Amino acid sequence: MPLSQIDFINYPSPKESKTTRKRERAGGNPVLSGLLLAILSRVLAASTFVQKLLWRLNGFDKIKDLPELEGYTARFDPTVIPATADSSEALSLLELPRPPKRRSEKAYYTTADYHEAYKSGALTPVDVAEYLLPLIVRQGKMPNKYSVAYLDVQPDVVRAAARASAERYRSGKPLSVLDGVPVAVKDEVNLEGHKKSLGSSLDFRPKLDATDWCVRKWEEAGAVVIGKTNMHELGLDTTNNNPTWGTPLNPHNEDYYTGGSSGGSACTAAQGICPVVLGVDGGGSIRIPSSFCGLYGLKTSQNRVSVYPAVPGANTVAVYGPMAPSIDDLALAYRIMAQPCPEDPLNKAWPSPTTHSVVQVTGEGKRYLGIDREWIDRSDPAVLNMFYAAVQYYRQAHGYEVVDIRIPLQAENQKAFSLTILTEAMTVLSMDKVKQLQHPNQILLNVSGIHATAQDLLASNRLRERAMRHLAWLWKQYPGLLVLTPTTPFAGWKIRKPSDITDGHGASDADMTLRSMEYTSFSNWSGTPAITCPVGYAEGNVPVGIMALGEWGSEEQLIQFGQRHESFLGEDGVRRPTKAENWVDVLSQATKQ
C-alpha cells in the first residue's frame, strides 16, 4: 500500500515553520577527565548556585521565551500511528523476505549463512554457542576485547536455547531464518532471568521479571539471545565510556569509541560475533554507534515497542531498534520484533510489518531527498565529501530528486530534547542514586536534570509540536520525502587519552556530545523513523554514516532506501575490521562438538 493512501492517528496538522533566528553552535563547556572531573562533580553536587549558572550558560532557560512558540500547544508524546484497514494475512516467519548469503569471503556473515550451515548439518546452534561463550563470558576483573561488550551472560540459558534450536533443525522444522542465530540485546532491555543495571552499579530490574515484547518475538523466531550488552551509564552520553564495566573499543580503530549509548551492541556486531543486535535509541544511540562501527541501524517510529519500558515516562523519546552489517538482516530483524503487541493499548494499533501490504510499501511517484544545506554544511569536510558523493549516487542510480528544505530552530529543538529526557530520567532517580553514578552523569543530572520548571517543560513540548507540524508540511509538499543528513558531523570520536577509559573517573565533553547528536536527536524528538547506512571510511579506517529520516510509519520505505544504498558500497558490501583479531570468524572457527 503506498504511503499516500495510509491514514494516521495523532498526525500533526501541517504548518510551515519559519524563523529568521540564526543557527546556534554548541560551545563553552570544558572538557573534563580524571581528578578534576571528580572534584567538579562534588562541587556541583554541593552548589545550587553553580548548577543554575551552568543551566543558564547552556541556554536551557531560554526555550520558554521563544516568540516562535505563540499559537502552538504542547505535545508530550510524538507517537503517530499509521492506521490501515489491512485485510491481508500476515506472512509466516518462514515466508518473510530472506536475506541472501554474504557476498564474498571479505564480507560479514548474514543470518542466511547460519541458517544454511545448520540446515546442511555442517554446524549446529550448539556448536556456535559453545564457541562463543568463552569469548563473551567475563573472567575475573578485567574483561577481554570481546567480553567487555557484555554485562550479563547466562551460559545455561544460552545452551538451552541452542539445544532447542538444534533439535528443530534435526527434525527439519526451523522456525525462521533467525532460528539458532546468536543475537545480543542492550542492557536497557528487560530479559527474564538477567540483571539490569543500565550500565551502572545500580539495580534496575523490574518487579515483574519478564522479557520485553520485541525480544520475545526474536526468541519465538528461534534466535539464541547470548547476552545483554554494555552501554553508556543510563544511556546519557554518546561514547560508551564506562568506568564501571569497561569501555568497548571500536573494532575498526581501537583509538576510537564505539559510540553510545548502545556501544556494546554495535561493538559485538562489528566484531562479527552476532549478525543482528538490539539497541535502544534515545538521542541517536542506535544510529551513532551504527555509524561509528560501520553498521546499518534502524530507529523506528513505533515508540512503545516494550510492554515494560526501561525507564518509566521516557518512552516518548526512546525506542528499540536493530543494528546489523547487512541491510536485509536489519529488515528481517525489524519485521519480526515490531509485530504489534496485544498487551499494549497503543502498540497494538500499529499495522503488522509482516503483512503483504506493509512489506510492499514503497511510496509512489517521485523520490525526494530533502537537504537543509546550511545544517549539513556544519559537518567536517571529510564527512561532507562522502555525503555529497552519496547524494550524487542516489540521483544518478535511483532517480531521486534533491530538494532544498529548511529545518528551523534545530539547535533549540535539541536543547528542548535534552531538557526533557534528562528531566524524565530524574523521575526514577533519587538524589542518593545520583550520588552513586559516574562523575559525568552526576554533573549532567545536577545541571540539566533537576532545574527544569513546568514552564520549561511546557515550552519544550510546544516546540516539539511546532517541529512535527513543520515536518507534516514538508511531506504534504513532497510526498515520500526523505530528509538526508550525515549521521554525525564528524568521523568517529577519538579517545582523547588512555587514562580517560582506565582511571575510573570517565570523561566529559558536553560540546562534543551535543555535536554528535546534531542530526540524530531530531528524529527521536519528532517521533519519526530513521535509518543509518555506512557510506565510507575516513582517515584511520574510521567508518562514516549517512542518515535518512522518513515520515511516521515509513520504516519499509527506509529499508528500501537502505537496499538501494547497498550497491553504493561495492561488491563486498560492509567492510569488516582490517585487523584479523578484531573480527571473529564464527562459522569457520566453531567446530562440531
Automatic annotation (TrEMBL):
InterPro entries: Amidase (IPR000120), Amidase_dom (IPR023631), AS_sf (IPR036928). Transmembrane segments: none annotated. Coiled coil: none annotated. Pfam families: Amidase. Residues 149-558 form the Amidase domain. PANTHER family: AMIDASE DOMAIN-CONTAINING PROTEIN (PTHR11895:SF67), TRANSAMIDASE (PTHR11895). This is Amidase domain-containing protein. It comes from Lithohypha guttulata.
